[in-house]
Amino acid sequence: MVSLRRQVGFTYLTVMFVIAILLGGLAIVGEVWETSARREKEAELLFIGNQYRRAIGLYYTATPGPQKRYPRTLEDLIKDPRQPNTQRHIRKLFPDPITGKEFVAIKGADGGIQGVSSASDVAPLKIAGFRVRDASLEGGQKYSDWKFIHTPPVQAPAAKPAASAAAPGAAPAAPAATGLEKTNH
């Protein structure tokens, strides 16, 4: 009878050991899955944030006249109120993939929306290695530091008109160098 009791105790310990190993494995799988899901949401945040940045830039560029404006609301990106026809700069208003709520609007100097950001205070997994367009996101300590802001293009200064006539007695101007003078044609 004593040997049967020892055998039952040994079997019980073996089952407990196997269960502990399985639970440890499940914990590791759960952690990897959670990290993978966060990375996917980060990639979605980068994509959607850049879609908003692009749409705001299209709205800004489509402003008639020399004085450009940003949209007053995000809804203006879906249907531009300045145009007689329906003009969509973005297909729909996407929610923030991290919080599931609306993006936070970032106001520009003219009072319009110049960009968007997440409302999440969670630390991002990705803090470096961004694309050139997203270089400003490097070093962000939380998702709300990732600001997708449209930067207006720098306008080149107006070119000076060339002198139509050379000064009397001056030598004619030499043609501009193109860099192709020494190539064999």
Task: Annotate the secondary structure layout.
Layout lengths: L1 H60 L42 E4 L5 E5 L29 E3 L36
Antiparallel strand pairs: 1-2, 2-3
Write up this protein.
By secondary structure, the protein is mainly α. The protein has one domain (7-149). It has 1 helix and 3 strands, in the order αβββ. The protein has one helix spanning 2-61; strands at residues 104-107, 113-117, 147-149. Strands 1-2-3 form a 3-stranded antiparallel beta sheet. It is elongated. The model is unreliable at 178-185 (pLDDT under 50).
> Strand portion, in percent?
5-15%
Order of strands side by side in the largest beta sheet? 1-2-3
Report the average pLDDT across residues.
82
Spatial separation of the terminal alpha carbons: 103 Å
Structurally, how many domains make up the residues? 1
Number of strands: 3
Main pleated-sheet profile? 3 strands, antiparallel
Query: Rg, please?
Result: 31 Å
Shape estimate: elongated
Structural class assignment: mainly alpha
Q: Could you name the ranges where pLDDT drops below 50 across 5 or more consecutive residues? A: 178-185
Secondary structure tally, helices:
1
- Which percent range fits the helix content? 25-40%
- The helix/strand series, from N terminus to C terminus, equals HEEE
